Structure formats: C-alpha cells, structure tokens
Fold this sequence. Notes:
The structure is a single chain. The chain has one domain (2-97): CATH 2.40.50. It is globular and about 45 Å long. Strands 1, 2, 3, 4, 5, 6, 7, 8 and 9 form a nine-stranded mixed β-sheet that branches. By secondary structure, it is mainly beta. The protein is built from no helices and nine strands.
Amino acid sequence: MRLPIDTTTVKFAAAGPAEPVLDYETRAPKLDENGVALFNVPLFAAGTGIKDSITVKVAGEPKGLAEFTLVKVTNLVASTWEVGTNHGVSFRADRVEAVKVGA
Length: 103
C-alpha cells in the first residue's frame, strides 16, 4: 500500500547526512529506475502533536545536510512492506532539500 503524506503541518530537520543505499548482498549502490543513486536521509519530524524520526529514501544525494538542518520534503509517500515474517513502513520522497533560512 502506498499512502501520500501531507507535509504542510510538519517541520522536518536532518538528523545527519544522507547515506547511500547499498544492495544487501553485493554492497553496490542501489539505483532508481532512471539510474540515479538512492540515498537514505535520516529526519526528525515534528508538528501537530507528533515528534518522531524517520528515514526517507530519495534519488540523488541531497547537499548541505548536517544535523538539525531544516529541510523541505517534496512528495513524501509511505509504503508498507513485507518480507517473510518481517513487515514495516518505508518512506520515499521526490526531493529532500535544505531550507535557506532568511531567504
């Protein structure tokens, strides 16, 4: 199941730098359908009664992210997954970019 998430009432900040997504067996970088490298971006999310941390997968390396850098997340989608007896939710976005403060 894929669920789009309304991010208009949520503030996001990077929890650290983006890291490449690696294939579990080969340790090679994973690519999206267009051949662009995928990155995991750890984020803090807060707003309207929520405070949580999530990891968002995005194509292309977001630049300028350090801990507590405010970011804008574009087209965030939550997807459920199941592998054997394991299951969970993963997050994917079209973009994660640093917010220019005072601009």
